[in-house]
Amino acid sequence: MEFKKGDIYGTHRVISPKGVLPQPADVVDNTMEIYNNEVLIDVHTLNIDSASFTEISNRANGDVEEIKRIILEIVNTTGKHKNPWTGSGGMLIGRVAEVGPDYEGELKKGDKIATMVSLSLTPLKIDEIIEIRPEIDQVDIKGQAILFQSGIYAKLPKDIPQTLALSVLDVAGAPAQTAKICKPGDTVVVMGGGGKSGILCCWQARKQVGINGTVICVDGFKKSINRAMSVNCADEYLVVNATDTIAMYEEIM
Q: HSE of 129 in the Cβ direction (CA atoms, 13 Å)?
């Protein structure tokens, strides 16, 4: 079998507009016939990012069947799961189904992995949505996805549940970046602080800034703020719509 040659960043998958990378692209090719340096994944679960899932759920008025319809429409229209309202994606877990002959890496058929690149750039095809778990923003599916040569991943650990591993890996970069940029005595504002990554960022920021610093947790939903308050991850909590710039500025000041 002769494989078509692919670019390491996946630009060969971009349908429109031409001249952009897969993430900002509006539409990508989600044909599940791999190029020479791609990895084909049988997908088990999508971990939709918190902002994206909340937006979809609100538009569906919490109706599970309508949530399924919206997710399928996004994927069928764009070839990936890039939320058209938030611009965000999430990540996935699955099992390696096929590895291109020129792929450079340790992956082999049968490996269980979590992709560490966003669903907003990952070619995805959903055959069936099996279950929606709104409380943790996860969607079990029957489908496939493509990992590019440049795409990073993590092999799933065997000592914790897969869905927990997916949740942790999805947000692992955010608190790590928080630890890098926050210093003792800083005042830190975490927008979207009531989400999964937001709570971890608040906790890490509080650890970094110490007793002389202040962490302000901001979220647009009272439910999310209550969740953050329940684990005492910040010094101050605000319910503010992030799209209202002046209100946000005034509340924080």
A: 18
